[in-house]
Amino acid sequence: MYNTIHIYGDYGCGLWLDGFGTGLDDNDLPFSASPELCARFEAWVDDYTSLMVKDGIDEEAWILNEQEGRALAGDIKKLAGSDIAVIYGPCRESMNDYIAMPNEVME
């Protein structure tokens, strides 16, 4: 059983278990997510990926992506319960350079 889940929108999967990337619909997860939450999560990962490969930097789009990532991490924490730590790792492009912001442990 996993005691920590990391959420990063990178590499086309978004959810990380013991260093391996997966999706929210992974059968190895100790909880089940609704199809709607899985679809929302996949859309967030796809959006993150498209922002990473864009030529121009859209600061507002990055901020919206971070907000959705935090909201999803909160929803996943509710599913995971108190025995599993859920850590959200926000990353975004800024007008000057790549910013990796501090990880957030979801409550």
Number of domains: 1
In the sheet with the most strands, the strands line up as: 3-2-1-4-7
- What series of H and E elements makes up the topology? EEEHHEEEE
- Overall pLDDT level: 85
Number of helices: 2
**How does the overall form come out from the CA principal axes?**
globular
Regions with little confidence, pLDDT below 50 for 5+ residues? none
Biggest sheet details: 5 strands, mixed
User: How much helicity do the residues have?
Assistant: 25-40%
Strand content: 15-25%
Helix-strand makeup class: alpha+beta
Using the CA coordinates, give the radius of gyration: 14 Å
Using brief descriptors, characterize the structure shown.
2 helices; 7 strands; two-stranded antiparallel sheet; alpha+beta; five-stranded mixed sheet; 107 residues
Can you put this structure into words, describing what you see?
The chain has 107 residues and is of the alpha+beta class. It has one domain. Helix content is 38%, strand content 21%. The chain is built from 2 helices and 7 strands. The strands form 2 sheets. Strands 3-2-1-4-7 form a 5-stranded mixed sheet, with helices on one face. A two-stranded antiparallel sheet has the order 5-6. The model has no long low-confidence stretch (mean pLDDT 85).
